[in-house]
Amino acid sequence: MTVLIAGAGIGGLTAALSLHAAGIDTVVMESAREIRPLGVGINLLPHAVRELTELGLGEHLAEAGVATAENVYGDSKGHQLFAEPRGLAKGYRWPQYSVHRGELQLLLLAAVRERLGSDAVRTGMRLVDFAQEADEVRVRLLHRASGAVEECGAAALIGADGLHSAVRARLHPDGGPLLWSGIRMWRGVTEAEPFLTGRSMMIVREGDVELVAYPIGRGRINWVAQVRVAEPGPLSEGADWNSAGRLADVLAYFEDWSLGLLDVPALLANSSGILEYPMVDREPLPAWGRGRVTLLGDAAHPMYPVGANGASQSIVDARVLAAELAEAGDVPTGLARYENLRREATAAVVLANREMSRTSSGSASGLARMTDTYRHATGSDVAVLNSRASLTPS
Asked: How does residue 362 score in pLDDT terms, banded at 50, 70 and 90?
């Protein structure tokens, strides 16, 4: 069979690597004409690092990112409230990594082209439509450079095309609006001296204002500022991960913060660029796909980026997808099994992230309960992950 993947993001590229490892031919179609290292820092939790390690990328991850050792919670005056070990220090068999999103994407892209061939990822190809037939999916693609439209067939179509997925829109034309948490986010990367252990993530909250900061390697600190500015509800504006933000809009909330170990106003002011984004998700779908077409990653389950779980869940999606397709007797059965395994699990993460965004606990015991509850709700307990069987198809 040949599987066509729409979208060369983290989830789509991981799916290509996983399907190839399972002996399944794959082609990736990416709408962007050039894949560039866009974005800022993200976190890969141990359950995602395990999957990329089993794909043979463990050493590359260690070189590209920083192995996070602890999360430190505090207030705007520099008081430490709670600290929790992470990754290997927590007892997982795999690290947690903080890494630049664009650099991770390029790492995966290089691996796909090395293993599948230089033409395995076709850029500048936008999905226009698709139709299912008895034994294949017919896909129409727009060549953005020439304007030509071509049609091709595939055994399966995987929509890994992100928040504004064209595949999802055709599967679920009445899928509902993006839902805004009421929180506006600003994100950036700043060259700065390390703080605490040099592998620490800081989470500082004061009322409706929160700052998250952590190193992502090469003398850079990634920061995320989150401010609740409205009540939750349907989003009435656009949502683009790479929309430019203004320093003046975010700095006003942090001018009097004094953490001691980290100069927050300087961290924001010296950023190489600022991105602005409304924190949004969607209601979990009752079904992702049908027949020979399904969804993966943000296309299937966009979630608030408060649990450092978005990219990690898309990586697990990719591995389960490949395993079920490899082991099923036919494509629709494999895709149905994949969806049955992942739909409820990812819906639980969407809902847990919503709850986390609303939770405000200023005590050490409250923060400990919150983090433990989140791990349990999202199926990422240490013992569960360490003892789970490999997702590599036998």
From this structure: low
